[in-house]
Every structure is written in structure tokens, then in C-alpha cells.
């Protein structure tokens, strides 16, 4: 019996999927996300570059462009990940490919969360403190802030690329590897994983609550626009909570199961649940363009007129042209 349990535990440590049918389902979900999200993000990216010319128009478009860029780069990892799952492996057997995948996954997902958070902070200052000077308002006029965000994320990917992280083996019970250095490394990468999600979530909650309260108290202005703004910030919270919080909770449960050295079966179930909820987090690539881009009537009108002109009423002119000008007089936006 001990040999059987030992072999089963070794499968978990060697990153072999112990529920192959379930992992094939995970792979199918990733393939569907890839098929749906790739053309959507590619079309939005094309619009930002060739139609909106984001570097010349609204400075907030720079953040949205980088958000879409991070999502589309993350999408290219999904086919490789899906192939591994179909092959019965939780990660690539090739160490170089495995680490390259982890680098891309964590860098681009981290960038997606970072630009999502920065955009929400910018919206917070525009709505709650419209006349107050702030560092972000000064920095966002320069595209260098986007480059700085990408550079700051690079060091955070180093702990996540260490061996076995992708197979959820932090703080595993193994006497020969029970060293202070290993414990420190394991703790570092777990801190990176949790702070990458929990800190932005706290910021989003704070910004969303204050934005909603500010808009509800506003009595002057276009009520339709105000309702749309409330819908937008609430949608951000829903998407973030749906995509990232479940995998964070699953990761926490997995670590507790491992530290308490529960049965191999319990550890395996926790690892399988974590892998499945990580797949759910990739839905962010599909939902980001819908929430951040299509909640804008100007962007939606421009998108439809370029890619689905048959849906645009005859004679309708997009509110925003390729140069960022509008056919209507400029108005103060609450978003």
C-alpha cells in the first residue's frame, strides 16, 4: 500500500496529470478561449494602432492599448498549455519551454492586472477628485510610464520561474530538500503570486466604492452616461473577482493542504482544482476588451463601423475618427 501511495504521490511531484479526462476538458476550455479571444484582441489592437493612433489621442488609450497587448501576448501561451494538458502533463517536460511559459504567463498576466489597476486609479482621480493634481495624471501624459510598468514587472517573474512552481510544489514535504534557502524561495514566489492579485483587488475595491458613491451623489449631468459609468466600474470588479479570486483561494487551500501534510489524495484534488481555476483566470483575455473597450460608445461605434458596418445604421458616423477627433463638440466625461 505504501508503494502505491508513493507512486501516486510521485506522479503529482513529476507534474503528470492524474485525472487525464478532466485535464483534456481544461485543454478544450483553453482552446475555446484562444479561438474567441485572439480575433477579438487582434481587432482591438489593430483599431488602437491604425485607427485611433493611441499615442496621439486620449492619453488613457495608452493604458488600454497596453492592457490589450498584455492579453494578446498571454493568449499565445494557451495552445502550448493546452497541448501539455492533452498529453497528460501539467507542464512541459522540456525545462526551457516550461520556464519560458512561466515567464510569459506571469509577466503578461501581471501586466494585464497592472494596467487594469492603473486605469481604475486614473478613473478614480478623474471622477472623485477631478480638479486635484496627482502624480498619475502627470505621468500618464508620457508613454514612458507604460514601459516603466513592464520593466517593474520583470523582477517579479524570477521567483515564479523556479522549478516546480507550475506544479504547485511550494513547501512540499521532502526531507532532502528541507533547507532554509528552499523555504525562502518558496515563500518568495508565493508572496509574488498573492500580492500580484490581492493588492490590486484591494485598490479596485477602494476605487470602485468611491466612484460609485461619487456618481450616485452627482445630480447634474447626463444620467445615461452616469449609469454607464457605474456599470463600467462594477463590471471591472465582477471580471476581476470572477477571473482571479477563485484561483487565489484555491492556491491558498493547496498550500494549507501541503503544509499540514494531508493525504496524497487531498493534495492531488487541491492541485487539480487550482489548475482548473487557473484556466478560468485566462478568461480575463476574453472579457477585458468587452469591459474596457466596448463600454465606451465612441469606441463601440468606431469598432462596429470598421469591422461590422452592416450593423451600423445608414448615415451614422462614428463618434471618433482615426485621429481621435469627434464629430460632436467635446464634453466633459465622467469616465
Automatic annotation (TrEMBL):
One Pfam assignment: 7tm_1
Membrane topology of this protein: Multi-pass membrane protein
Entry GO CC: membrane
Limits of the G-protein coupled receptors family 1 profile domain: 40-292
Location(s) in or outside the cell: Membrane
Keywords: G-protein coupled receptor, Membrane, Receptor, Transducer, Transmembrane, Transmembrane helix
InterPro entries assigned: GPCR_Rhodpsn, GPCR_Rhodpsn_7TM, HCARs
Transmembrane segments: 25-50, 62-82, 102-125, 145-162, 191-209, 230-257
Example of a GO MF term: G protein-coupled receptor activity
SUPFAM superfamilies: Family A G protein-coupled receptor-like
Family: Belongs to the G-protein coupled receptor 1 family.
Protein name: G-protein coupled receptors family 1 profile domain-containing protein
Amino acid at each position: 500500500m505504501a508503494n502505491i501511495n508513493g507512486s501516486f504521490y510521485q506522479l503529482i511531484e513529476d507534474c503528470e496529470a492524474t485525472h487525464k479526462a478532466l485535464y483534456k476538458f481544461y485543454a478544450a476550455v483553453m482552446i475555446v478561449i484562444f479561438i474567441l479571444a485572439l480575433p477579438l484582441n487582434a481587432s482591438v489592437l489593430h483599431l488602437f494602432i491604425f485607427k485611433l493612433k493611441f499615442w496621439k489621442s486620449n492619453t488613457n488609450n495608452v493604458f488600454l492599448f497596453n492592457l490589450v497587448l498584455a492579453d494578446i501576448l498571454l493568449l499565445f501561451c494557451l495552445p502550448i498549455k493546452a497541448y501539455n494538458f492533452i498529453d497528460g502533463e501539467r507542464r512541459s517536460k522540456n525545462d526551457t519551454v516550461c520556464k519560458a511559459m512561466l515567464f510569459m504567463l506571469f509577466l503578461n498576466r501581471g501586466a494585464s492586472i497592472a494596467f487594469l489597476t492603473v486605469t481604475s486609479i486614473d478613473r478614480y482621480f478623474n471622477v472623485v477628485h477631478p480638479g486635484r493634481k496627482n502624480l498619475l495624471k502627470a505621468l500618464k501624459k508620457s508613454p514612458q510610464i507604460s514601459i516603466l510598468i513592464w520593466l517593474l514587472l520583470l523582477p517579479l517573474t524570477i521567483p515564479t520561474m523556479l522549478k516546480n512552481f507550475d506544479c504547485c510544489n511550494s513547501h512540499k514535504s521532502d526531507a532532502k530538500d528541507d533547507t532554509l534557502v528552499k523555504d525562502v524561495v518558496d515563500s518568495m514566489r508565493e508572496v509574488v503570486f498573492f500580492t500580484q492579485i490581492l493588492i490590486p483587488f484591494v485598490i479596485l475595491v477602494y476605487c470602485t466604492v468611491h466612484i460609485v458613491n461619487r456618481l450616485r451623489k452627482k445630480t447634474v449631468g447626463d444620467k445615461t452616461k452616469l449609469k454607464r459609468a457605474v456599470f463600467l466600474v462594477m463590471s471591472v470588479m465582477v471580471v476581476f473577482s470572477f477571473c482571479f479570486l477563485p484561483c487565489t483561494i484555491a492556491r491558498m487551500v493547496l498550500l494549507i493542504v501541503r503544509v499540514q501534510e494531508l493525504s496524497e489524495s487531498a493534495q492531488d484534488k487541491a492541485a487539480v482544482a487550482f489548475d482548473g481555476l487557473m484556466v478560468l483566470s485566462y478568461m480575463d483575455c476574453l472579457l477585458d476588451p468587452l469591459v474596457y473597450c466596448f463600454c465606451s460608445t465612441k469606441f463601440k461605434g468606431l469598432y462596429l463601423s470598421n469591422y461590422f458596418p452592416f450593423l451600423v445604421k445608414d448615415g451614422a458616423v462614428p463618434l471618433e475618427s482615426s485621429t481621435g477627433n469627434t464629430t460632436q463638440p467635446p464634453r466633459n466625461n465622467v469616465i
